[in-house]
Prior knowledge:
The chain is of the alpha+beta class. It has helices at 3-12, 59-68, 93-135, and strands at residues 17-20, 32-37, 40-46, 49-56, 72-73, 83-86. It has a six-stranded antiparallel beta sheet. A hairpin with a 2-residue loop joins strand 2 and strand 3 (40-46). The N and C termini lie far apart (64 Å). The model has no long low-confidence stretch (mean pLDDT 88).
Amino acid sequence: MNIEDYREYCLSLGDDIEEKLPFQKFKSGEGVLVFYVSGHMFSFFDCNDFSIISLKCQPERIEDLKAQHECIGNPYNESPKHWIGINPATAPDELLKELTRNSYEIVKAKYRNRRSIESHQTRLNQRSTAEGKVNG
């Protein structure tokens, strides 16, 4: 898959996707394009060297994926415990799409749940504050 097709695929995953070049102050990271969901990274690669895409992955899947697919290895500049690197030039498009969607879903679920808990806690705090004013 080429870089533009991959970018379009990432953006098509949801209305909540952002893309940024957040590392422009750093010489080695100025071309790194990052895709975010809920304000957190799920995919990134260097636009000047489109040979590795780093994706979030379930730790229990990583070794099997590496054993089954030569195009999967370590990520660029992330923990290999939670991230994989995939070569878009040699990876089958369907595998790349499946792993990208998987990464998006992992991150979205993690931070949607966290936001939901924080929102619930805020409502409880507001309710107890309001009750304190009524009872006080």
